[in-house]
TrEMBL record, chain A:
Family (UniProt): Belongs to the sodium:solute symporter (SSF) (TC 2.A.21) family.
InterPro entries in alphabetical order: Na/Glc_symporter_sf, Na/solute_symporter, Sodium:Solute_Symporter
Gene3D superfamilies: Sodium/glucose cotransporter
Listed GO CC annotations: plasma membrane
Stored Pfam families: SSF
Name of the protein this chain belongs to: Cation acetate symporter
Organism: Pseudarthrobacter enclensis
Transmembrane segments: 6-25, 45-69, 75-96, 116-133, 153-171, 183-204, 224-249, 261-281, 314-342, 354-371, 377-402, 409-432, 444-463
Any Gene Ontology biological process: plasma membrane acetate transport
CDD domains linked: SLC5sbd_u4 (cd11480)
Entry GO MF terms: acetate transmembrane transporter activity; symporter activity
Membrane-protein topology: Multi-pass membrane protein
From TrEMBL, chain B:
Name this polypeptide is given: DUF485 domain-containing protein
Stretches with biased composition (Low complexity): 1-14
Region: Disordered, residue numbers: 1-21
Domain of life: Bacteria
TM stretches of this protein: 43-65, 77-98
Keywords for the protein's UniProt record, in alphabetical order: Membrane, Transmembrane, Transmembrane helix
Amino acid sequence: MNAGVAAAALAVVSVATAVIGFYGLRISRTTGDFYVASRTVRPWWNASAIGGEYLSAASFLGVAGLILLSGTDALWFPVGYTAGYLMLLLFVAAPLRRSGAYTIPDFTEARLDSRAVRKVTSLVVVLVGWLYIVPQLHGAALTIRITTGLPSWVGSVAVVVVVCLTVVAGGMRSITFVQAFQYWLKLTALAVPILFILFVLAGTGYSPVAAPAVNPTGQPPASLYSNVSLLVALLFGTLGLPHVLVRFYTNPDGQSARRTTLIVLGLLSVFYLFPTAYGLVGRMFAPELGRSGQPDAMVLLLPRELVGGAAGDLLAALVVAGAFAAFLSTTSGLVVSLAGVVSQDVLGAGVGGFRLAAVVSAVVPLGFALMTDSLALAGSVGLVFAFTASTVCPVLLLGIWWRGLTDAGAIAGMVTGGLLCGGAMIAGSVAGAANTPAWLAQPAAWSVPTAFAVMVLVSRATAGRVPATLSRVMTRLHTPERPLATGR
Amino acid sequence: MSRVRVTAPATAARPAKESREAAQESDVGQVFVRSLIRSQLRLALVVAGGFLVILGAFPLLLAAVPGLAETRIAGIPFGWLLLGVGIYPVIGLSAWLYTRTAARNEARYRDLAGDQ
């Protein structure tokens, strides 16, 4: 690809992000109080921002690459990512907003009245965040290498530098506008090229070179166990992601948290039609991209492969811009939420602590990303969902819906789930993808139920530790807010 | 550039919180709260269960009817349309039904608890 065009696309995205960030900052400064501003954030803006933050490298590049490789088996990824939000709506959205908690550790501490639970939850949340940032940086490295020919590390370092600068300079206030902009940028960057490609294919009467069912690499299809376990991870992993929870806080009340989630589901459903279309078109018209060993690059390469010429270059630049929006938005959302946790629990509150925490939250995964190699993006993000589903998900679900949960039970369950799932992830990466049996490669189907079971059994055994504040907290979580005097 | 520490909006939250927590002062208030939580949980489980049944039925349908997955509609195999497009309206419909019914449960609680 023309390296200059790709570099220009990157520069435009970074500058646009910064400009919108500062514009938004000015708005929130004139209103004086961030929370006055946040209550005027309309559900559409807020939902776009949630979509912008949620759609990561895995959704933008990984899903299409995986569909190219695995066909209909890989369609479970976008379905699971979307249905995870349905589970979030059903079980978590409104009670979590009503809890008034800003981070997951805030929630567990308030619900279980225990500092120890807070510490363990913080540790788990930081681990989840770091694990989730690494694939974003891998995606950036891949994009830079494929599109500009520069060394891989340039991409990862560039994302970390831009994110650190914007977070340290602007903090949380302007981020809603940036994230909302990035959702629509990502959607455009996927939709325009694929529609153009389909138009060209229809116009030239270019006939498919392979049937959609044909696997370009000849891999065997995934087993039923793998698909079910993946779905468990995606359905129950979404509701524990730290950057998702922060976004719910900007809803004025529990009702609007539900309405926002409903819109998010619509936005995600529309978005995922496009990676699916890329995967299908790739399978039928350019299966050789699946044999290159870098299926994640398929979305970046397809426009030039099938359109070519100057138009192909421009479309490819648009895709690169969208991909960088994905890396930047997800990484900055994670860094902001991690910095909140790290600064509160480790470095002490205050602006200096927050800034230092933001840099630490971004640099640690950078080191890890530089030392490791890019696996399939959708697959490695899938494992992060499995880890979240085995640790944060049980404590949230049981905390919201079961009066019997105790601090001892919560800690035992999170530690068990974390050790089982983390152990499976480490064993899998040591053994290599080829030598890992399915039950180890997709641990969610057994690690999630085990974490739930341990949490329930230990809570039952320590029933005397149920906090005295229980009925007050449960009332707060589940009863509707009285309409505010300042509201409609 | 100044930074605002992110904490709960105390002035706005207080009236709502007080009125909500007043509900649990009495034993009757707790009965209403418990019944609200039970009905919301039941609703969430029913919607989640219904969705999962439909989700599971899609691949079963494709497996049960030979050739169905490969049948082309506008050049696209039916299996791809079903899993790649057809599931999303089911998700949206479940979410919409849930949101409506959950709001109705809360309205009923408000009436019972005399919160207004």
